[in-house]
Design a protein that fits this description.
The complex is a heterodimer of chains A (about 150) and B (about 140). Chain A is of the alpha+beta class and about 150 residues long. Chain A is built from four helices and seven strands. Chain B has a three-stranded antiparallel sheet with strand order 1-3-2. The chains are: A alpha+beta (about 150), B mainly alpha (about 140).
Chain lengths: ~150, ~140
């Protein structure tokens, strides 16, 4: 299990096929994601996402329409993204009725393979809300301790 | 926030052992590496390595007290990191909101087109103005 950084979700009043096209077609992606999207949605395909004058390579990992789409990014330039040097963004689509879809996105990275599974599970349970909540909790404990 | 700094931060707190060290420092204040080693399941050497990585990201600092070196969490840096993570969450919320608007607009349009022989209320949907989310 990977270390979860962030997990968010939204309920969309449209069938999964429509949501799938919105999140995978480059001309659609450029409307909600990057300014410039060069991407072939095939497993292993290398692409590019541009944000203004910045941007970086992405590599598609899973394409399972209309259920799961994932890609890796934020890896060092010139290197292949693998577990440990990149962030994995994963979209999961779950139909809730004919015309409604729950869309989840998670961004995770820097998995530590050497760590025993039960420890990873324990941490995943503790930090189900992601690192934003984890850090927030630390900051709160610290503030309490400092004022006390 | 720069990508470089984020990368360092993520790999620093991405390691469960380092989070354990960070947890202990947050709850116990300034403590020595030997004290930490007595409260974790990994070696004293590993503790030193983790402390070095945490120091490099600025999350942890050290000071000398007598003959001991004590480690403590840098509250400002921790706050900064907390905000960076919250920003990331907000960014995804914004993107999901945009996906929702696009998909619902496309779906409404498709329904309108396919239903052109069944009477549909005209002008009943202006989807792009519909679900505006937080900014």
């Amino acid at each position: 299990m990977a270390d979860l950084v962030i997990e968010r979700e939204v309920l969309i009043e449209a069938p999964a096929e429509v949501v799938w096209r919105t999140i995978t077609e480059p001309d659609q992606m450029s409307q909600w994601f990057a300014d410039r999207v060069e991407l072939v949605v095939e497993p292993g395909a290398h692409g590019f996402m541009g944000f203004g004058d910045q941007g970086g390579p992405v590599v598609v990992e899973t394409v399972d329409p209309p259920v799961c789409f994932s890609f890796r990014w934020n890896h060092p330039r010139g290197e292949e993204p693998v577990t440990g040097n990149s962030m994995l963004v994963e979209f999961t689509l779950t139909p809730e009725g004919d015309e409604r879809t729950r869309l989840r996105v998670s961004e995770r990275g820097h998995e530590l393979l050497a760590w025993p599974d039960e420890e990873k599970q324990r941490y995943a349970d503790e930090h189900r809300g992601g690192w934003a909540e984890y850090l927030d909790r630390l900051a709160q404990i610290l503030a309490k301790r400092q004022s006390g | 926030m720069t990508a470089q700094a984020d990368d360092e931060l993520w790999s620093a707190i991405g390691d469960p052992s380092r989070r354990r060290v960070l947890d202990l420092l947050v709850s116990h204040g300034a403590v020595s590496a030997s004290w930490l080693a007595g409260h974790v399941t990994f070696s004293r050497q590993a503790v030193s390595k983790h402390l070095a990585v945490l120091e490099q990201t600025g999350l942890v600092s050290r000071r000398k007290q007598g003959r001991e070196v004590l480690y403590q969490v840098e509250a400002d840096r921790l706050d900064q990191a907390t905000r960076a993570m919250a920003d990331l969450a907000t960014q995804w919320d914004r993107r999901l909101g945009a996906i929702k608007r696009l998909a619902e607009a496309a779906h409404a349009q498709a329904k309108k087109n396919e239903g052109s022989n069944t009477p549909l209320e005209e002008g009943s949907n202006t989807p792009l103005e519909g679900g505006r989310h937080d900014g």
